[in-house]
Amino acid sequence: YREAWDKDKTQISIPSDTPVMLQSKVNALNISNKHYQKAWDEAKAKSYDIRADAIPIKQAKASRDIASEYKYKLTHEKEKGHYVGCKTAQEDPKLALAARAMMLQNDRLYKKAYNDSKTQIHLPVDMLAVQAAKECQTLVSDIDYRQYLHQWTCLPDQNDVIHARQAYDLQSDAVYKSDLEWLRGIGWLPNDSPEVKRVKQAQDLLSDNVYRTPIDSLKYTSVVDSPDVLLAKTNAEQVSIVR
Predict the structure, then answer these.
(1) How far apart are CA 224 and CA 159, in angstroms?
(2) What is the mean predicted confidence (pLDDT) over 114-132?
(3) How far apart are the C-alpha atoms of 180 and 238, rounded to whole Å?
């Protein structure tokens, strides 16, 4: 139904010189960013020439030199060493005085002569103080104090050796307790002794199996002619359908 109408919609043609079309083209140019920057892009594409002695270039170089710390301190670095007024630091009286003051304040240099003279003291060998020191060293020496006796050898069958061995055996704790060590662990008591009977009686008193007899180990049967049994039998005969 709409097939002919859909075909006609796609085949509509408007002349390009109508006022509406012309106005739309002008509006498109006005809002186009590319057309707006066309002249600027063409100017950028062209080459340009700036001389080295141009004012902007000189101003940029001067600003860079002023901002540079090297250029700022160049004069100071060149004039270093010209303020002393002497060829060397040793010729300057102020520097020499400062070095002398530092040497006087140095404790190592102050005691250098004293330390050198300490090692050059000479004393006579027969001096009383030296003799007294040697004698005192001999008295306190552990080597001279402990003089080991000669290692004597004795025959094993001498009376002194035999007597010493017997004295050592009498004083020896191992020999004194040897009988106890031999008897330890081999004690024995008869079965009918009072001690054994007392222990067995105590075990029977403390035994839970003897004190509490299990109920399942007892044999019992229910009473046949008890009132409950007789009543149950009477009720069974009364409700019996066979009877």
Answers:
(1) 101
(2) 80
(3) 88
What's the residue count for the chain? 243
* pLDDT score of 175 more than 80: no
Q: CB–CB of 26/32 below 8 Å?
A: no
User: What's the mean per-residue pLDDT of the chain?
Assistant: 80
Structure tokens at 87: 């060829």
Q: How remote is the C-alpha of 88 from its chain's centroid? A: 57
CA–CA separation, 123 and 134 (whole Å): 14
The structure's pTM equals: 0.19
What would the two tokens of residue 111 be?
């005691």
Supply 127's token pair. Answer: 């001096």
Q: Which residue has the tokens 């004597």?
A: 152
| pLDDT, tens only, 138-166 | 888 777 667 666 666 777 788 888 888 88
Give the per-residue SS3 of the chain: CCHHHHHHHCCCCCCCCCHHHHHHHHHHHHHCHHHHCHHHHHHHHCCCCCCCCCHHHHHHHHHHHHHCHHHHCHHHHHCCCCCCCCCCHHHCHHHHHHHHHHHHHCHHHHCHHHHHHHCCCCCCCCCHHHHHHHHHHHHHCHHHHCCCCCCCCCCCCCHHHHHHHHHHHHHCHHHHCHHHHHHCCCCCCCCCCHHHHHHHHHHHHHCHHHHCCCHHHCCCCCCCCCHHHHHHHHHHHHCCCCC
